[in-house]
Amino acid sequence: MSESKQSSADAPTLAQSAVVELVLGAIGLIFVVVVGRNLGDAYSAPVDRLPAAGLGLAIGLVLGVAFGVGVTRPFFAERVRPFLARFTSARPTVLNFAIIGLAAAIGEETLFRAALQPSVGIWIAALLFTVAHAAIADYRHPTLGKLAYAALAFGMGVLLGIEYDHLGIAASMATHFAFDTTALTLIRPLLPTRGVAT
Description:
The protein has 198 residues and is mainly α.
């Protein structure tokens, strides 16, 4: 079996992806309680949540469009296709991408921003965020594309951390959701079409 077919067979379903992301969020909540912080403080906002979330959506949309348009260029498209085969076995629909984006925004922002960042700082939280994406990228066999993905994950981790500190979790969740949903929607033509699992 080819690496691409093997990878796509091992790709998580939509339900598996959502459960993993929500488990990350639960771990984050447990961490907050164990270290003795108030849950309200973890989710507090230095500014009004609605405008912050709107700004986060706008930032995520712009970054998602830039990423999606860039990755679909022929030079990059053929290099990322094998990587995308491991991402998900869900049908490549906007609704499924929105579900993945929402679950990732809730789970990962709760763990890496609300729980870990106040204890370890933006840079370490961003590094841990990058490491957490190793399962998708398979960093064991580094390539230029995988290093670029790691740099993107780290950069996004730093950006989301800055948003969390200055705008609150609503902004970082909104950016995360909008980026993931928009980027996945735009790179949909590069995703394997065999996806039937939900």
